[in-house]
Write a structure and sequence with these properties.
Elements lengths: L8 H29 L3 H11 L5 E3 H8 L3 H13 L3 E6 L2 E9 L1 H21 L6 H25 L1
Antiparallel strand pairs: 1-3, 2-3
Helix pairs in contact: 1-5, 2-5, 3-4
Length: 157
């Protein structure tokens, strides 16, 4: 049996740099989103996913899949968002066990108010720091990794 293929110095530097960048970027974007709009990243993800659908509603199970969360975890989060008037939960007409999460007018206003500042933060902390070539490379490599992981997840499911 072969031993592990350890990372060489260049690979290790790239891997550790990516992990540190991701943590710092996620932390800063979350901090600014909460400070500027009073929304957590999961709040924003739910609201933006719902706002981008034609009827501003999704099955809870589909929303959980998009967010890579368990249905139970998302259900608890949706309950907290309901208490704040950002979303409602409706019974699914085709499946008595399923539920639909719908954007409320207050939720729509919240995401529309938060989006400009959030996009500005994404630009300030990532997009505008990259050259066009680096941005293209980031798009290519992120698609490659997502496709690889998505294929593995679908094959296992």
């Amino acid at each position: 049996m072969d031993g592990p293929r350890w990372l060489d110095e260049r690979e290790d530097r790239a891997w550790r740099g990516y992990r540190r960048m991701r943590r710092l970027l996620d932390l800063e974007l979350a901090r600014e989103l909460m400070q500027d709009a009073g929304l957590s990243e999961p709040d924003y993800d739910v609201l933006s996913d719902l706002s981008e659908t034609p009827d501003q509603r999704l099955r809870l199970s589909e929303l959980a899949d998009r967010m890579l969360w368990s249905r139970s975890r998302l259900s608890h989060h949706i309950s907290r968002m309901q208490q704040r008037g950002l979303v409602t939960r409706e019974e699914c007409a085709t499946d008595g066990r399923g539920s639909i999460v719908a954007l409320t007018p207050a939720g729509r206003r919240a995401v529309e108010s938060a989006a400009p500042g959030h996009v500005a933060a994404v630009r300030r902390h990532l997009i505008d720091l990259l050259t066009p070539t680096e941005l293209a490379a980031l798009g290519t490599l992120s698609r490659r990794v997502v496709d690889h992981l998505t294929d593995r997840t679908e094959a296992a499911g």
